[in-house]
Specification:
This protein has one helix at about 75-110; strands at about 10, 25-30, 125-135, 140, 145-150, 160-165, 170-175, 190-195, 200-210, 225-230, 240, 260-265, 280-290. The protein is α+β, with helices and mostly antiparallel strands. It has 2 domains: about 1-55, no CATH class; about 125-290, Galactose-binding domain-like (Jelly Rolls), CATH 2.60.120.
C-alpha cells in the first residue's frame, strides 16, 4: 500500500472543522496513511510531534457535570443519607437529654430527702485581738499601782505606764464591751512592760476577768486569775511576755455585757524575783469569734 497526504481541515483553536461551509482559516496536519480498513478508513497512529499548529496551552474553562458523569450518587440518594444521619443524631441527642434529666431528678430527690438538705452557713471561728494601753487603765483604790509617764533619755519617746511594787501585790483595771462576734469563751493576755532602774530577775503578771449583765451585782468576784512570768532582758528594753493560758471570764458572759479585766503583779509567786518596780506599758487581749452571725440591735 502506498502512503500519501491526507489533509484535515482544523479551525484556529485546533477543533476538527465539519463541512458546514465555515470560512475561517484552516490549518493542515500531515500524517502518513496506514492500512485501510473494511470501511475505507485509515487506521494507525499519529505521533504528537507530527501534529502541526497545535496550541501551546490548554487553559481550563468553566463547565458543569452531572453527578452520574463524575461517579457520584444521585441527588436523591445523598439527600436520603443526610436525612437518615440527621434523624439518628436527633434520636441520640434526645436519649442523652432524657438520661441527664432522669439523673438530675434523682439527685434532686435524694438532696431534698436528706436530713439537712440546706445547711446554714457557719462562719469560720477566727482569733482576734485588741490593745489596751496603760493610759486606758484605772488603778485600784486598794493596793493600786502607781501611774507615771516615762520618757527615754536620748530621743524623748514618752509613754504612760503603771509602776507595780516588787514587794506588795498591786493591781489596775480596765473595762470594755466585747465585740458582738465574741464566742463568750476564754481569752488570753500578753504583757508589755519594762523593768525599773536596776531591775533583774523575773516578774509574774496575773490577769482575771468579770462579766456584768443587766441587773448583775457590780461587786462580784472575777474569775480565776491566770499567771505568766517573764524574765528581765535589760533595763530600757521592751519586754513582751508569753501569752497566758486560757482565762475564763467570771460570771455568765452574754452579748452586750460589760467586761472588767484586772491586771496584777504577784510578788508572792515563786517566779517573781525582781525587787524593783515593774512598769506596765499595756496588755494585748486575744479572743475568738463565735459561729453565729450577730443580729441587728
Amino acid at each position: 500500500m502506498s502512503s500519501g497526504r491526507i489533509e484535515l481541515q482544523l479551525v484556529g483553536n485546533g477543533t476538527i472543522q465539519t463541512a458546514l461551509g465555515d470560512r475561517r482559516q484552516f490549518r493542515t496536519v500531515i500524517f502518513p496513511t496506514g492500512p485501510r480498513g473494511r470501511d475505507g478508513a485509515v487506521s494507525g497512529s499519529i505521533a504528537w510531534t507530527n501534529v502541526t499548529g497545535k496550541p501551546s496551552t490548554f487553559p481550563p474553562s468553566n463547565h458543569t457535570h452531572t453527578p452520574t458523569e463524575v461517579g457520584a450518587d444521585p441527588a436523591g440518594s445523598a439527600a436520603a443519607a443526610l436525612a437518615a444521619a440527621a434523624t439518628d443524631a436527633t434520636t441520640k441527642a434526645n436519649a442523652a437529654r432524657t438520661g441527664a434529666e432522669t439523673t438530675a431528678a434523682a439527685a434532686l430527690t435524694a438532696h431534698e430527702g436528706a436530713a439537712n438538705p440546706h445547711p446554714v452557713y457557719v462562719p469560720k471561728q477566727r482569733y482576734r485581738s485588741f490593745w489596751v494601753g496603760a493610759g486606758a487603765m484605772t488603778p485600784a483604790t486598794t493596793a493600786g499601782a502607781a501611774p507615771a509617764t516615762v520618757e527615754t533619755a536620748t530621743h524623748d519617746v514618752a509613754y504612760d505606764v503603771f509602776k507595780f511594787d516588787g514587794a506588795t501585790a498591786e493591781s489596775v483595771w480596765f473595762n470594755l464591751r466585747m465585740p458582738d462576734e465574741w464566742d463568750r469563751g476564754t481569752v488570753k493576755a500578753v504583757f508589755y512592760w519594762e523593768p525599773d532602774a536596776g531591775g533583774s530577775g523575773a516578774v509574774t503578771w496575773g490577769v482575771s476577768g468579770l462579766s456584768d449583765s443587766n441587773d448583775d451585782a457590780l461587786d462580784s468576784a472575777p474569775g480565776t486569775e491566770v499567771l505568766v512570768s517573764d524574765s528581765v532582758i535589760a533595763v530600757g528594753d521592751m519586754h513582751i511576755s508569753a501569752a497566758t493560758a486560757a482565762v475564763t471570764v467570771g460570771g455568765s458572759p452574754a452579748l452586750g455585757d460589760l467586761i472588767a479585766i484586772r491586771i496584777r503583779r504577784v510578788p508572792s509567786d515563786a517566779g517573781d524575783t525582781m525587787t524593783q518596780d515593774a512598769c506596765l506599758i499595756g496588755v494585748a487581749i486575744q479572743w475568738r469569734e463565735g459561729t453565729t452571725e450577730p443580729a441587728a440591735w
